[in-house]
Amino acid sequence: MSDALVRNLAIPLAQVLVVLGVASGAVAYMTLIERKILAFMQLRLSPRRVGPHGILQPIADGIKLLIKEDITPTRADKLLFTLAPILTVLPAFTALSLIPFSGGGKFTLFGYEFFPWIADVNVGVVFLLAISSLGIYGIMLGGWASNSKYPMLGALRSAAQMVSYEVPFGFSIIGVLMLSGTASMVGIVEAQRQAHLWYFAPQCLGLFVFFVSGVAETNRLPFDLPEAEAELVAGFHTEYTGMKFAFFMLAEYVSMMVIASIVTTLFFGGWLRPFPNVAALGWLNFGLDHLHPALPGFVWFGLKTFLVLFVYLWLRGTFPRYRYDQLMNLGWFWMIPLSIANVVLTGAVVLLVAR
Amino acid sequence: MSVTGFLRKFLLLEMMQGMWVTLKNQFRPHITVEYPKETVEFAPRFRGVPRLRKDPATGEELCVSCLLCEAICPTECISIVSEKRPDGKGKQLVSFTINYERCCFCGLCVDPCPTKPITAIYMSHDYELAGYDRDAYVTAREELVDGKPAKLYTR
Ligand code: SF4
Ligand code: SF4
Questions:
Q1: CA–CA dist A239, A227 (Å, integer)
Q2: Is B50 in the pocket of ligand 1 (CB under 6 A)?
Q3: What pLDDT, in 10s, does the model give residues A133-182?
Q4: How far apart are CA A62 and CA A66, in angstroms?
Q5: 35-54 in chain A: CB under 8 A from chain B
Q6: pTM score of the predicted model
Q7: Assembly ipTM
Q8: Contact (CB<8Å) B19/A45
Q9: What is the distance between the alpha carbons of residues A12 and A118, in angstroms, rounded to a whole number?
Q10: What angle do CA B14, B15, B17 make, to 5 degrees?
Q11: Is A107:A36 a contact under the CB 8 Å cutoff?
């Protein structure tokens, strides 16, 4: 194989495969962790029958979903019905390609240079927003193609919810972009390193709005109205079974991970350890940088992302579901004005300081 | 709204309180009863499946086939067949079936049973009712009287 072929085809492909594999594995185990955390919050036990402390449970779940009967409702639109889960999963995974998992620039392996991310686009954040709003097509099509009124209602609610939270979701990032002066994910983390400051402090309002909108975007509790099982018998995926259903769940969890990664990158300094410029705190790298300079980055990124995901599950364990009009109220009356106020405030401060 | 009230609401203090509760719960021991391995103590009037019994002192049949329980049962799940005794005094049970598929464990059948103080029909503490076919839910008289042997689901 020629050198160019390896560099332009094989390496990106390998990176994509690694990210896909790690993300899928992480999703599988996130379902277990979620069940554990929720159970502990309710003083319950969690799955413990499959393997010691239930660590094989995700595998058992996967096998169960694979061998379940795959039902397509009569007179459903067969093509769209099959396409919808794929359409939901693809954007979720695509968003992962922009996340910088570690820093330190490129590192070499087998004589070839790698970046610890798949792509560093200089409009990264904008592209992420665009991609994350595509997931709704899958949900809409799935609801519509099922030829049943419950999925249809669920899909419509989902559309309304996702559209209304898309606006504050986008607005709340602008503050970060103003502070860092770039829209590249790697650039934003670099800017935080140079500023000696993670952006959650000056952008606490933005972080709050972004996280709440992110939770609403991914249809997680307390905003899981599209699948409100009490009113809609599970919403847009009522008619889905087996692996197709699993794809919707996969998309949901991958989107959660994406949101958590974005929060980590934009507001908590991405792969940076606390006080990244203070050399005396080098022990925070756990000595991993002697092994490889990129390793502590992975560890810190994973740690922070997990903490954000924990907050996701924590919210789920704490709050009851919002009523639909309350949800809309929160989105349009609170989140959007707050995010705009954040933009104006940040703009004013940046202008004053820059002078 | 008072200023403190507004601040409480605006800073989401109540929500924080709720989240603090769930966070604390993370570290408390669980209170689940691991059912197949362990069971709880039942209250004395716990209502499991209704069963028949014989007089514990003499071992004689308590039921006098008065059909009161059959009459009062709201789901009509009891059916009793009886015949005259050979000596002409009273009746004798031929069959007594309860269809547990329909029984709602209301305990009404126990109330009118005339064989006080020990009623012939009583609500037992047996609650492990799983079965593999529908016949498993129609109990014959022998089973009712002697009670099913307690199944242990422990693995
Ligand atoms: S418990 Fe209620 S439903 Fe069951 S046999 Fe007795 S009267 Fe009928
Ligand atoms: S009420 Fe009591 S005595 Fe009368 S038939 Fe039922 S079980 Fe027998």
A1: 12
A2: yes
A3: 888 888 888 888 888 888 888 888 888 888 888 889 888 889 888 888 88
A4: 6
A5: 37, 39-45
A6: 0.79
A7: 0.74
A8: no
A9: 7
A10: 65
A11: no
